[in-house]
Every structure is written in structure tokens, then in C-alpha cells.
Amino acid sequence: MAIRRLQQDFHHLMKNKVDGIDASPSAENIFLWNAIICGPEESIYETGTFQLQLAFPDDYPLRPPQVRFTTNVFHPNVWWEDGFICVDILKDGWAPSYDVLAILHSIRLLLIDPNPLSPANLEAALLYRDNRAEYNQRISQMIQDTHDAENNNDDDDDDDDSQIEDGDTIRQKTIILRHSITE
């Protein structure tokens, strides 16, 4: 049942492409998926591209997958140490009708609508509540650090590494990264 449902989820995801969301199962294990979400437009996360891993149980969709960011994310509802996400859709609010697209869409919305009353990251929750400017600065720095690390890992870098990438360039890189996930 789970394998068939995961195949249906993948087919649905490919048929109903959503800007800023992509996912596919690993080549070796249909129960382990890699995903990418782009930060929602007009948000502090806008220039970020975030990688996630979804691990589905044998009885999916009766139970939700475990989902974690593999990219560092500073957020009240994301554990800093391991990237696991604290969101109702993956816990008590789970319903078998949810599919991979619904999960990723909910996580993308969570980025801009955190719940600081149910924190996984207390520091982020307190900053979100008490010092929004510092909270936003930490997110901007985290995104910049991620971009810097990616640029340092690129063997094909141009000589002009100091150029700041705009949203279109980042989204183009995301498309390339999406293709590498689905191959």
C-alpha cells in the first residue's frame, strides 16, 4: 500500500508542478525522498533554497513521514541540531489524505508563519517574539552563509565571487538542483 501511494504522490507532484517546491524519491529507496523548497516570495526567506529529507514509514499514509531540513534553518519550529520540523501536519494534525505536495507546501508556509508558542528552537522563538530585527538578521546571515558555502564548493566558480546573486539567479540554481534530485 505504501509503495503504491508514494508512486501516486510522485506522479501527482510531477503532474502538478508548483513553483518553489520539488521532491523525488531516492534511486535506491522509495521510502526516502529528497526535496527542495524555495523561500516564499516577499519574505525574509525569499533568497533561500532549502533542502529537506523525507523518510516515510512502511504504513504511509496512515502515519506521516519524518521530515527534516538538511540545510541549516534558523526558525522557531525547526530543531537546529538535526533539522527536524515541529509542525502539526506531521504530528497530531496528520491525515492520510495529505500527500508530499501538501506536506512541502505546509512547511514552506511555516517559514513565514512560525508558531513561537510551540518552539523547537527556543532561541529563534524568543527572537521572533522579542526582537524581530535580530531574528531577520540571523535568517539573512544563515542564508548568506549557505550561499557562501555552496559557492566555495563549486569547482566551476568564476573569478568574480564577490557578486551578490539576485533572486532570478538563485531560482535558476534551484532549477538545476531540482534536476539533479530527480535524476
TrEMBL record:
Biased composition annotated in UniProt, kind: Acidic residues: 151-167
Gene3D superfamilies registered for this protein in UniProt: Ubiquitin Conjugating Enzyme
Domain UBC core span(s) in chain numbering: 1-148
Keyword terms: ATP-binding, Nucleotide-binding, Transferase, Ubl conjugation pathway
Entry-linked InterPro entries: Ub_conjugating_enzyme, UBC, UBQ-conjugating_AS, UBQ-conjugating_enzyme/RWD
Molecular function terms, GO-annotated: ATP binding; transferase activity
UniProt superkingdom: Eukaryota
Active-site annotation: C86
Alphabetized SMART domains for the sequence: UBCc (SM00212)
Family according to the record: Belongs to the ubiquitin-conjugating enzyme family.
Entry protein name: UBC core domain-containing protein
Organism name: Rotaria socialis
Phylogenetic placement of the source organism: Eukaryota, Metazoa, Spiralia, Gnathifera, Rotifera
